[in-house]
Amino acid sequence: MTDQSQREDDPSERMAEKPQATQPESDAAKEGKAAPAPAASPAALENNVHGCALVIEGGAMRASYVSGLVNVLLEQGIYFDYVCGISAGATVATNYVSRDMVRTKRSFVDFAANPQMGGMKSFLDRHGFFNADYDYLGCIEDGSMPFDWQTFQANPARVRIQAFQRDTGRTVVWGRDHMQTLEELMACVRASSTMPGIMNPIEVDGHVMLDGSLGAGAGLPNHIAEDDGIEKLFVITSRPAGYRKHELSPVRRRGIIHIMKDHPYARNAMLTRPERYNEELAHLEELEKSGRALVVRPREMPVSRTTRDVKELEHAYLLGHEQGIAELPRWREFLFGE
Q1: Does 87 or 111 have the greater pLDDT score?
Q2: Less packed terminus of the chain by CB within 10 Å, N or C?
């Protein structure tokens, strides 16, 4: 179920995947020298789950638990050919596509110990509670959180990441055509994760982008796969069974109206998000009852979206991993009929 008031389909955002852009002429070529032979392109990887989407919800540091679940998929060699995510789920999704179990865990556990990641000092210095300039590209550039770009490129899986245009109210879903370089990929992931007040926004294609959870689905990305015609969904949420968002308190509503007074589309998206999220949850439950979706929900959620304590995040990760191992037979039956 797609919230049409928040989303407009644009065929340009769902173009067929394009080949890597031609690289600029090298300095050696300009000087007439023989250029060194280019490095061989990595062989294309193979996936073994077809016709079923891996759908990953966000939730900031709640993704520590989700990462434990996802690493069970990687450990077991369960590779989906379609992966989509929103917000922190976009980070988990790209780590999964790059098949990097170490980064999948570190992104939402060990990385929290890095003082450059964020916190109150970062917030007071106007870098956001999560320091987006560092958390997506800076940490790759300084080597503290490498990203396996070659493996990401070699993986033929379709990738979808959702974000929200602040000044148009339009939901944008990016595919590989917007991920031609590592910098472009990280811009998409960052844009998808930019919740107002928590992170500083970023411009993509001339538009100021905010967290994808403000758009269609209100944070649950199953509609992305459904819109692409995927009939079967393997959905990982960051909220336990029975969760529903509460109606915004009067104080919270007034705060949103004040902070977003100059951005009516974003303001409306934030004010209506609880209702829209709960509607999408109900739709997801219907998909589950019909047999079209297997929904993996945390048995418990011991951390919040802003938790920075590494021991607490490690505990959440281990709980997720333990749950994944326990549920593996159910997963295999749904995916492979085993």
Answers
A1: 87
A2: C
